[in-house]
Amino acid sequence: MPKIFLISAYTLFLSLILFESFTVFIFGKHIRIDVIEVILSTNTGVTGEFITTYLSQFPLPLALFLFALFFGLFIRKGIQKYKVPDKLAFAFILAMIPALGCLAINASFYARTGTVKGSYRSTSITRFIGACVLLKKSHSQMEDFKQRSRPETVQYISREIQCSNIVVIIGESFSKYHSSLYSYPKATNPKLGELAQSNLYVYKDVITLFSYTTSVIKTIYGITRYRSDKTFPPPFPSVLRGAGYRTHLYDQRDYLKEEKYQVIWSNMFDTKNDTKIRDDLDLINSIDVSKTEPSLYVISLRGQHYTYANRYPESFDRFKKDDYPEVSDKQHAEIIAHYDNATLYNDFVIYSLIRKFMDLEAVVLYFSDHGEEVYDYRNFMGHGGISEKSKEIKYQIEVPFMIWVSDLYKEHHPCEAEKIKNAVNRPYNTGDLTYLIMDLSGVKAVGYDPTRSVINDRFDSTYDRIVLGFINYDQRRRDSAQ
Q1: How many CB atoms lie within 10 A of CB 91?
Q2: Which of 43, 283, 380, 404 has the fewest CB atoms within 10 Å, i.e. is most exposed?
Q3: 423 confidence band (pLDDT: 50, 70, 90)
Q4: What tens digit of pLDDT does each residue of 427-439 get?
Q5: Domain extents for the chain?
Q6: Are 208 and 216 in contact (CB under 8 A)?
């Protein structure tokens, strides 16, 4: 029995160490609640592409994993072969009791505070236990959000509807550094570039607060409070729905897909697509635009999510690996070409959606959940794997953000249109989307803060933006500029 306990303990510790090695390589973090949530919330289709993409980039971690696995089997065989006496095994178990006590204390500290004080006070098992406790607390947070998302509970400051159609498009893995709207030399955004000559306003300094989708979605809807506000507004779909908007969700990605969370989507949206459409353009074509009632449309695209070659039809296969002579690795050049083609197709998808609203009073917002690295400065593609020590995080944290307004909207709301135009250089983050939507719609709920709406005259541009929960992005930029 003592031997079985030792083997089980070794297996547990080894498994957690290997798991944490995976999270460090992929997400740039030790075992944490947000990392576990990302893994649990990733659907099977994305998981397959995820594994294919990252295993091709990390032969060393894979080799280390296999080495550790075989080493573990070797230790197990050694215990069996040399017949370790039960008394000796029992002595080892007794010696482990103080260590287990320390682990329990550290795990309790992590669960209470969400942090660890130095690596010497934490181990893989400590962080795993603490993260599981925090995950349970997160579920309680979701129960609270279920109540806050009920439109009948919203308390209003103003219910005056000012815009008939609000459209929010959430892209996926769109790097502004591969967009011709942001001076990228390849013409990856020709259609949006045409619109930028008139009614499309491209914002220059917008970031996301996380580099992976699940955490970003939680900040967009206000499930996660990234700033300790005394009063926090309900999610913007619930605010608009309670004021008289018809709210529609077209989701390609299955966020919070578990059955227990479906009530949240039912609270926020009148309609939600039940089936997923593989092609983003087919999804756009399926959208039925109302011309008789004020409506909110939230559309979540597949965008440029890996695998990039699967994100565009053959007719958009414009860029080839030979178009990148500056890239010495031809396999990398081919992947970059696939990504740029996916960006080109995404440009056409967004343009096609905007065309649906050209004759209506409408405001369309587009932004990506996070950015993407495509061999920009290191041998890496994808997102995740960044930390405070990373040389560059801008490729994953900075995102394209743009607002298009129809001619009818400009005619009816010239002052608001001018505010949208004049705000393009302000520092902003997508976690404050709710406040912007309130300003655009005219509907404001208790918790509204004008200093967090990028188009508002009272917008606070001095507040430093914190990304990944611990990196002061603006301070980091100031330090690098010195």
Answers
A1: 12
A2: 43
A3: very high
A4: 999 999 999 999 9
A5: 2-144, 149-481
A6: yes
Task: Give the pLDDT confidence score for residue 421 in this predicted structure.
Answer: 98
**pTM of the full structure:** 0.81
Domain over 149-481 is classified CATH 3.40.720.10? yes
Name the one residue in this structure whose structure tokens are 């050049």.
333
Asked if the model's pLDDT at residue 240 lies above 70, the reply is yes
Query: What length does the chain have?
Result: 482
Q: Which amino acid, 12?
A: L
**At 121, is the pLDDT very low, low, confident or very high (cuts 50, 70, 90)?**
very low
Phi-psi region for residue 442, left (φ > 0), alpha (ψ -120 to 50) or beta? left
